[in-house]
């Protein structure tokens, strides 16, 4: 049995440094405040974040949309490189871009950071990244929590999670009920791997014998720089498109499960989307991962986004204008395929019917990927 210190056992001696936590809050306050508009009341440090929802009175039937998520094992890369600000943008993207899929405008977000030891500068970097992501998304960061877990997590370990709430007018709700045969499927480019599939990617990196500082000619940068590329945030663009295009039927955020599985979730039963793999140039990172690990192509596309981060389903009369609007906002977009009747093809590597508990439509992948 260890002896008790003469001054007694303190919280700090048990591994929790409340002064470090207070310093982290001071370091992040200004970044958080920049996400606050006049609707946010109380500032940083209150027990609960307050948001003036008076604007919802203008809605006939406001529907609240909520989402929560993390960034998966991409956080291992951030810790290894000791670069902690970009992971915040990843977190915001993973949360708010799920909300906009139904046409909702994100309003507020909160974050949660669990760590083995509070390093004020590191926590502040993480939250600054979250705040910058919130500014990009047009959402207020109204609260958060940093929890120190000595004995449960290693001193330099941490994980992040977030949650957000948005609102959509019921009559403007996007989803499978709006999708029609003949609609066009439009792809919106990803910024890279985003924040899914990193268990596979890290295994490939290990198998290839690469370090995070290894330069890959096809990528034009190091492995670490490529893997830490922040997730693109689509929320403001998607909200704008939803407001501008009456013929917009649905969005699909391409995250875990890949393009086909996530697109199938927003299609109604009885309809199928045909997607041509050669409709775009496959970004180099996906070819590099595939070749380095001899990853089966069907496994790769059911894990990674393959260069498509968001999908829109739209009336054919508005498809070209929507593609142009996305490009004008700095997000390349192109036609992936069309929606038609489900031909009843058997489910297999190229045919996905429903996904993630949704008894939805079908996605048929055809052709081969075209290298960039």
- Radius of gyration (Å): 22 Å
Cα(first) to Cα(last) distance is 64 Å
Helix percent reads 25-40%
Number of helices: 11
Strand content: 25-35%
* Order of strands in the sheet with most strands: 10-13-7-14-11-16-15
Largest sheet: 7 strands, mixed
Task: Report the strand count.
Answer: 17
Low-confidence region ranges: none
Overall, the morphology is globular
Mean pLDDT: 90
Structural class: alpha+beta
Order of helices and strands: HEEEHHEHEEEHEEHHEHEEHHEHEEEE
In short:
The protein is an alpha+beta fold. It is built from eleven helices and 17 strands.
Kindly describe this structure.
- With 372 residues, the protein is α+β, with helices and mostly antiparallel strands.
- The protein contains 11 helices and 17 strands.
- Strands 10-13-7-14-11-16-15 form a 7-stranded mixed beta sheet, with helices on both faces.
- A hairpin with a 4-residue loop joins strand 8 (215-216) and strand 9 (221-222).
- Pathway: Purine metabolism; IMP biosynthesis via de novo pathway; 5-amino-1-(5-phospho-D-ribosyl)imidazole from N(2)-formyl-N(1)-(5-phospho-D-ribosyl)glycinamide: step 2/2.
- Its main location: cytoplasm.
- Belongs to the AIR synthase family.
- Its EC number is 6.3.3.1.
């Amino acid at each position: 049995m260890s002896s008790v210190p003469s001054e007694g056992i303190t919280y700090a001696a048990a591994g929790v440094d409340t002064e470090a936590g207070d310093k982290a809050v001071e370091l992040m306050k200004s970044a958080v405040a920049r996400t606050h508009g006049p609707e946010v009341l109380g500032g940083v440090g209150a027990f609960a974040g307050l948001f003036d929802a008076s604007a919802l009175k203008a809605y006939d039937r406001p529907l609240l949309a909520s989402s929560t998520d993390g960034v998966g094992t991409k956080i291992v890369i951030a810790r290894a490189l000791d670069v902690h600000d970009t992971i915040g943008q990843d977190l915001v993207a993973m949360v708010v871009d799920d909300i906009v899929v139904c046409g909702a405008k994100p309003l507020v977000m909160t974050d949660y950071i669990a760590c083995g030891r509070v390093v004020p500068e590191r926590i502040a970097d993480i939250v600054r990244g979250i705040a910058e992501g919130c500014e990009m998304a047009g959402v207020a960061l109204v609260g958060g929590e940093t929890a120190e877990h000595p004995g449960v997590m290693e001193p330099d370990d941490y994980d992040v999670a977030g949650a957000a709430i948005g609102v959509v007018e019921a009559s403007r709700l996007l989803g499978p009920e709006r999708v029609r045969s003949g609609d066009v499927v439009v792809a919106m480019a990803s910024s890279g791997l985003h924040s899914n599939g990193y268990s596979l990617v890290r295994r490939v990196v290990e198998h290839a014998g690469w370090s995070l500082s290894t330069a890959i000619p096809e990528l034009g940068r190091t492995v670490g720089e490529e893997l830490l590329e922040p997730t693109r945030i689509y929320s403001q663009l998607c909200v704008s498109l939803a407001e501008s295009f009456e013929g917009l039927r649905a969005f699909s955020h391409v995250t875990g499960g890949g393009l086909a599985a996530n697109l199938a979730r927003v299609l109604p039963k009885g309809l199928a989307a045909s997607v041509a793999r050669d409709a775009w140039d496959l970004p180099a990172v996906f070819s590099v991962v595939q070749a380095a690990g001899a990853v089966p192509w069907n496994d790769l596309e059911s894990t990674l986004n393959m260069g498509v981060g968001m999908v829109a389903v739209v009336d054919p009369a508005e498809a070209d204008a929507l593609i142009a609007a996305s490009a004008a906002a700095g997000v390349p977009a192109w036609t992936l395929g069309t929606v038609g009747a489900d031909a009843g093809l058997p489910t297999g590597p190229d045919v996905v019917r429903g996904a993630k508990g949704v008894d939805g439509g079908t996605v048929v992948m055809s052709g081969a990927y075209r290298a960039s």
